[in-house]
Write a structure and sequence with these properties.
By secondary structure, the chain is an alpha/beta fold. It has helices at about 10-15, 20-30, 40-45, 55-65, 80-90, 105-115, 125-135, 135-145, 155-165, 170-180, 195-210, 215-225, and strands at about 5, 35, 70, 90-95, 95-100, 120, 150, 170. It is built from 12 helices and 8 strands.
Amino acid sequence: MRALVFDSGPVITLAMNDLLWVLTELKKRFVGEFLISNDVKNEIVDRPIMSKKYKFEALRILNLIEEGGLKIYSNDLKKKTDILMELANNMYFAKGRPMVIVQRAEIESLALAGSINADAVVIDERTTRLLLENPKKLAALLTRKLRTEVAYNGGTYREFQNEVGKLSVLRSVDLVTIAYELGLLNRYLFKPELKKTLLEGVLWGTKLSGCSVSREEIDDIIKMEGF
């Protein structure tokens, strides 16, 4: 089964930019499942729908789930999630003490993706992405951020990698770029000369809503698209 596994962040980013509908259209072309774990559903629907500020956003996400744009993976992931949580939060040390660097929902997404050998996991949060793609860079980033030396345990990382497997990573910024390339965003394009403005708008919209993408990356995407 082809599948993409979504963490909370990208779904929230798309909801904040009124782009949840893009997932339905991308799923049709992907010909596979777009999955979330139970903990992610709790983060993006169950808790926020009880609030005043995020109730409508949660309702729109719930509607997407009901329509099949996202599917909840109901199999038990507790054991694998517990193992990955223990490894991830004992991989980096500051002043000799292990650092808590990830939360349960995002790790459950990795557990799910690894369990089903997903095509990719969709994550906007930088720490988790670097944990998968470049753990040494994450150590350097944490050192700069905390202004104290952060040590990295390579052995623990190898255990973590063995548990989760090799996962490809996508972000919401990648999804909206694909949507732009497929012409899905042309509904907003009432003048052809505004194509660059449209692309800039959706790229910056994802960044300012929480997606970890740099100004330089946005500039590179715009150039790649011929502007």
